[in-house]
Amino acid sequence: MFYALSWFFVVALLAMWSLAAWALHAVAVWTVSNAGALSGAASGASTMALPDWLAPWVPPEVAQWASKAMGGLAPFIDSMLQAAPALAGGLTVAT
Hints:
This protein has one domain. It contains 3 helices and no strands. The chain starts with a helix and ends with a helix. The chain is mostly helical.
């Protein structure tokens, strides 16, 4: 009887593991497949400004540098978001 219960427990754990892997795979593929719709969202990053309460504490040179850095990262982030749907097939293999 002990052997039957232990095998039932092992099969139940395997079933739960498989269900969790399937669910996480489905969510990940859906997320990656829809990431291309977000392209262009990073273009507004260069227009971000410091909050009013933080502006007196940050030197203007640092604020300008951060704004330029965010503006330079926007095209990179957009290209990564456009390439993300192509990763969905690899995610299936990884799972």
